[in-house]
Structure to design on (154 residues):
């Protein structure tokens, strides 16, 4: 039996054969993904007070995103960004609409939810619905000498 006869005997169409071929080479069929920001998942609360209070060491590789303006990362449920003007912000990363993880956008200097398009300013205030409430904001205190960033709630 010839190869073309064999393929026809399987009952596969040309498009079905191309789909099978593409599945086998899927990595070459997709564009390269943008790397996801780090989520350190370190403890975020003070065990005594129960309030958010942690310190990130920006000399550590895990926190390197915060050494450049526009970088951001997650620690637990908190997004920490070094905004494009160099200051730091820390907000809840949980969108108040349906809980999707938000991202910091360097170009527009705001916070965006990729699920339904809600937007927040860098203080967490809603600037575009459907999010019904602001993102909780935390205090930041950066020591440029030690390169340590404390995130806490008062
Ligand atoms: S979950 Fe964020 S806008 Fe809907």
């Amino acid at each position: 039996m010839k190869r073309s006869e064999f393929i026809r005997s399987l009952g596969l169409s040309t498009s079905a054969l191309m789909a099978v071929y593409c599945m086998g080479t899927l990595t070459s069929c997709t564009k390269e993904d943008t790397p996801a920001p780090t989520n350190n998942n370190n403890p975020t609360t003070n065990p005594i007070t129960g309030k958010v209070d942690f310190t990130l060491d920006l000399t550590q590789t895990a926190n390197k995103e915060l050494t450049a303006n526009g970088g951001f990362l997650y620690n637990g449920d908190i997004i920490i960004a070094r905004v494009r003007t160099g200051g730091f912000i820390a907000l809840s990363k949980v969108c108040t609409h349906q809980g999707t993880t938000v991202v910091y956008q360097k170009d527009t200097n705001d916070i965006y939810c990729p699920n339904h398009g809600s937007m927040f300013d860098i203080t967490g205030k809603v600037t575009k619905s459907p999010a019904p409430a602001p993102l909780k904001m935390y205090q930041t205190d950066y020591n440029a000498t030690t390169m340590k960033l404390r995130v806490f709630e008062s």
Summary: Confidence is low (pLDDT under 50) at residues 3-10, 12-35. The pocket of FE2/S2 (inorganic) cluster is lined by residues 95, 97-98, 100, 113, 115-116, 118, 130-131 (CB under 6 Å). Residues 14-24 form the longest helix (11 residues).
